Amino acid sequence: MVSHDLPVVSRITKASVGEPYIALILALDLGVVRSLCNQVADADLPEASPQTLSVWQADPKWLGPLTRYAELTGNTMDTQVLGPSILREIHYRLLLSPIGGMLRRMMTADSHANRIAKAIQMLRNEFRTSISMAELADWAGMSTSSFHTHFKAFTSTTPLQYQKDFCLIAARTLLVQDGRSVTDTAYAVGYESPTHFSRDYSKKFGLPPSLEGGQTD
Hints:
about 0% strand
């Protein structure tokens, strides 16, 4: 489960025709989570940890409703009638799971988790421009030192590195999917120097942007 947007790149390391890789992405409804949090407020649940991404072995109690929800695909009436109740059960099972603390933490209006999420959204919206640590901290309503500490605790990186990684991932999309040239891509994601861009890109992805399929400058 991922509670905050992270600038990460993933790849499938094991898959075959006989054993294909299958994944399902489910966007959680924070309104449903908030409603359920009020109902389970008195339950003895694990404390929330400052994690943003967590992996755990799902148990049958959670896989059951998830499977039923996936089986609704293609049946409009079943989806309309049964979908909301099954989704609510999925959210409930997640709240009671070992990583449920991540969700409960997000429901606290003035929590550090929400403040960091607010700063992350600003970084993603304004990734082409230079944003100082003081500006981000002010936007999040935190002191600079507290903001830096909590940002790194939640994302395992610094705000500056987060912005750089997000820029480079956006650049890869422009190169690979849109076929943009290296120079155009560098300027499009906020770099002032294509040479500097190429150096950072090679360091992150292990190959120069000129080999990613974009147009020749």
